[in-house]
Design goal:
This protein has 391 residues and is an alpha/beta fold. It is built from 15 helices and ten strands.
Length: 391
């Protein structure tokens, strides 16, 4: 069947199916309601939900799938929040505590000097005894070591801790962090933006209102952020929709969110270990419903580290237009391979994945400025390996 015939068949399927009214709304550019969001989540017809989301995806971003060459630094795993869904923070019977020195940070960055890293992504636990100067030194160290890289750092709860240490208004703190090299924020830690979920599984962290206000403050001082949603734990369908609508309302106000990133919950090593892993069905539904509800978000990411590379490939036809990046040394959540074999993907592999998915690879920076390199969009022949003489 030709591409045109396939598109016609999909259109007829949507026009005559259970979402005929939502198809009309999408085609007319009308905003979906809370009730629409619940219907999308509850429908078993993933094909229809994905097809609707793909219409929005292609209207916004065509056939492009974005990726970035990035490196992650998790500068400490000491945390005083005790979230029930987290396996990252140091605890008895779990990971040993650590705090990276500036020499440690420099060494980690020097190990990837040969890679044209575009983004340094830094998040960590909430260490109660790190001084304000640590965070300024951290930014200074990264900027001095990799001056051409964009620094994307600090979740909203980290910023609230940094503000507490600084003893200054959030606007002033953010401007000072910017002066030391902060370029944007990753947007993690949103979890589910309802009081019930907050009180049940992360009561010591910031509230939904605090997360949203911190993000909007960042936008007002000129810092773009992303926004996440942690799904597949104790949240209800209705709470997922409330979360999306709160993000949409904040975006209406400030326009500072770049990307929505659904994060699949993994219970391994957490206090919620009885909850089963998410399925590919749920992962694709989260991508698709997010794309449909967040009509004012430019991008939606299928984060391959969280949902596996094959599902991230499929997600590019369910509303996602981004697959993230090379991800050197990711520690915040579970590793998708038991043997730790997939803690990073080469740039070549990312391009290959996107091409296999039938999309056009586009290398970007964290603000979605397109980067043009010889190998950004196509698979160049691999260079022959040169045997080195034995010492």
């Amino acid at each position: 069947m030709s591409t045109t015939a396939t598109a016609t068949a999909i259109t007829r399927y949507l026009q005559n199916g259970e979402f005929a009214d939502l198809y009309d709304k999408v085609m007319e550019g009308k905003r979906l309601s809370f009730e629409d969001g619940v219907r999308l989540w509850e429908s078993p017809d993933l094909t229809a939900v994905g097809a609707l989301a793909n219409l929005v995806r292609e209207a916004r971003n065509g056939n492009k799938t974005y990726y970035v060459r990035n490196q992650h630094i998790n500068y400490t795993n000491v945390c005083n929040k005790g979230c029930r869904f987290c396996s990252f923070y140091a605890q008895k019977g779990g990971p040993a505590p650590y705090v990276m020195s500036m020499d440690d940070v420099r060494a980690k960055l020097e190990r990837t000097r040969h890679i044209p890293i575009t983004e340094i992504h830094m998040v960590a636990g909430i260490h109660p005894r790190l001084p304000y100067s640590y965070y300024l030194d951290l930014l200074d160290t990264v900027k001095a070591t990799r001056p051409d890289a964009h620094i994307k750092s600090f979740t909203m709860v980290e910023l609230l801790q940094i503000q507490k240490l600084a003893g200054k208004p959030m606007e002033e703190v953010l401007l000072e962090l910017k002066a030391h090299g902060l370029d944007s924020l990753p947007g993690g830690g949103a979890e589910i933006l309802t009081d019930r979920v907050h009180d049940a599984i992360f009561p010591k962290k910031e509230t939904a209102a605090e997360w949203l206000e911190t993000a909007k403050t960042a936008h007002r001082v000129g810092l773009h952020t992303n926004a996440t949603m942690l799904y597949g734990h104790i949240e209800t369908v209705e709470e997922r929709v409330v979360h999306l609508m709160k993000l949409r309302e904040a975006q209406d106000e400030t326009g500072g969110f770049l990307t929505f990133i659904p994060l699949a919950f993994s219970s391994k090593g957490t206090k919620l270990s009885d909850i089963p892993a998410t399925t590919g069905y749920l992962d694709l539904k989260a991508i698709a419903v997010g794309r449909l509800m967040l009509d004012n978000f430019p991008h939606v990411k299928g984060f391959w580290m969280m949902i596996t590379p094959p599902v991230a490939q499929a997600a590019q036809w369910y509303g996602a237009d981004d697959i993230d990046g090379t991800i050197v040394e990711y520690e915040i959540t579970h590793e998708i391979a038991e043997d730790n074999a997939q803690q990073q993907l080469t740039q070549r592999k990312l391009v290959e994945m996107i091409l296999e998915a039938g999309r056009e690879p586009v290398e970007r920076d964290p603000l979605y400025n397109v980067i043009e390199r010889e190998d950004s969009h196509t698979l160049l022949p691999e260079r022959p390996r040169v045997a080195l003489p034995m010492a």
